[in-house]
Structure formats: structure tokens, C-alpha cells
Amino acid sequence: MSRVWVAILLAGAGTYAMRASFLLAADRLARVPPNVERLLRQIPPAALASLVVPALLRPHGELDLFSPRLLAGVVAAVVAWRTRNVAATLVVGMGILVLLDTFMSV
Amino acid sequence: MQLSEVRAGAAAIAPMLVGVVPFGLVAGATPVSEGLGVGAAMGFATIVFAGASQLAAIDVLADGGSALVAVVAACTINLRMLLYSASLAPFLAKEPLRRRLAVAYFLTDQAYATSITRWSAEDDPGTRLPFYFGGAVLLWASWQLSVLSGALLSDAVPESLPLDFAIPLVFLVLLVPTLVSRPAVVAAAVGGLSAVVAAELGADELSILVGALAGIAAGAFTEARAERERT
Q1: Is 0.90 surpassed by the pTM of this model?
Q2: What is the ipTM of this complex?
Q3: How many pairs of residues across A and B have Cβ atoms under 8 Å apart?
Q4: What is the pLDDT of residue B225?
Q5: Nearest to residue B172, comparing CAs of B188, B193, B195?
Q6: A15/B75 Cβ within 8 A
Q7: Residue A41, CB half-sphere, CA atoms under 13 Å: how many?
Q8: Residues 1-60 of A with CB under 8 A from B
Q9: Residue B162's pLDDT band (boundaries 50, 70, 90)?
Q10: Pick from A80, B120, B142, B165: CA 20 to 30 A from residue B153's CA?
Q11: pLDDT at B160 over 70
């Protein structure tokens, strides 16, 4: 078997093992100790912020505090907070980014 | 299966496809233009099914690296799946094993983020899996189609509109409602900034995991201290 397919199968097995890990044991997790539950409660804000903040502060792989993406993201965050609406947030965020990109490239 | 829940799950994922489809086109076009072939592109899409890690492994292989290095690169990026798995597991304690194993295969950033938001707000356990699969399977199908399209049209993939920005924007909409308490705000602030610092220090894709772990620790610490002060 080729190097490429060995990599695909092993990366697939490893990734699936991590996805399945705690789900596999879920039937024994019906009563989670309070300390563990406290840790689990932090996962959504911590993980989501880890996905969002670098996309705004390091839009092209390096720190950039004056990028159109940061400004568009901050305005989009206000829209998200006020409306909780995905479509409105997408339209405002993408719209501001496209506008800023257009003006800054002229 | 409640069809309305399946639809609600699909509707929650749908806006993310604006960002996912261009990403899939790139994940399909890259292995083909690097000479690994359409078969390998689809092997990655179906067997690994995790965008950033697919590209990382393809990058190693295209540079002539060994399978082992490619596997380590891919698995490192996907370590955050352990956190998602742990976070979702208590909600599925009563589901049979084979369903939990199916949930695991379809687990992505997007499926996790939409489901944990909904499950935390909705008390009826019967609606959880229909909602999850409605979104997760739609995302899976869109990923396979866009990777295949990218692989077949590898020369024609455009890079004009900043569509990739749709992905963080949707995560933003999911992040905002989680910020309901001081510990949650601390977890998000420490998590987001730690991810940036880790990336600046060269942690690359691993920075998401570093950020998440730092945020979890900070949030839990804040919560524990607040509890001690109350008693």
C-alpha cells in the first residue's frame, strides 16, 4: 500500500478514536462529578473563542490589529449580540469586509 | 425521528456552508495539484473528514514527508475533538452505543457548536440526535461534494471573495449566547487570547487546542473561586 493511503487510514483511525473517546464511555457519564462538570461547562465559550479570536486578530497568519477583518468582526459581534441572528451577522460582517477591502485596495 | 428537528439542525448548519464549500474546493484541489490524485482527495474527505487536518497531512505528503509525520500532523490538529466528545457525551448517556459511534464519525467544529448550543437550551433528550444528524449529515454531504468538485476542477478553483470569513462569523453567533456568566466570559477571553499567543509562538493549528485548554482552566478557576467566596 502506498505512503499516501497508509497516512489516510491511520489519520482517519486516529481522528475517529478522538471523536469517539468520551462518546464511547457516555453511558458511564450519566452522573458526572461536579468538578468535571465545571470543566465541561467551560468548553463551549473557550473552544468557540479559540476558533473566532485568531481569525480576527491573525487573519492572514500573523498578528494584525488594523485588519478589515477585525473591524468587520467587531461590528458583526455587536449584531450577533443584539439579534442572535446568523443571517444578519453574516450579511453585515461579510458586507463590511468586502467594502473595506474594496476601499483599501483603491 | 422528528422531521422538524432534522430540519432545524440543517437550518443551523446551512449558513456555515457559505464558508465550508470554498474550503472543501481547496481541500479537493490541493491534493490533485500536488499529484496525489482524486482518489486520495476523496479518501481524506471520507475517512479523515476534517478540513484543516486534511490539508496539513497533504502538505506533508506533497513535500515528500513520511506517512507517520503526516498522521501526527493531522491527529495533532484534531486533538480538540477530544474536548467536543467530552462536552457532548453527558447529553447522550442514554443513547445506544451504535448511535454514539455514528455521532462520533460526523463530529466537526460546526456540528459540535450548533448542537451544544441547542442541547444546553433545550430539555427534551429525544430531540438531540435528530437535530445533530440533520446538521451534521448536511455538512458531511456538502464537504464530500465540494471536495470532489475541487478535485475534478482543480485548475479552476477561484480565490476571489473572502468567503472563508463566513466560518468565524458563524462561530461568533454561537459564541455570544454562551457568555452568560463571569466564568464563561473569562473562559472565552483567556481562550481566545491564548490561541492568538500560541499561534504567534508557532503552535500553528495546535493553537486552537492550547487556547481552549487555557480558557477551560481559567473559567473553571474563576467559577470555583466564586463558589468558595459564597460559602
Answers
A1: no
A2: 0.86
A3: 285
A4: 94
A5: B188
A6: yes
A7: 22
A8: 3-12, 14-16, 18-27, 29-30, 32, 37-58
A9: confident
A10: B165
A11: no
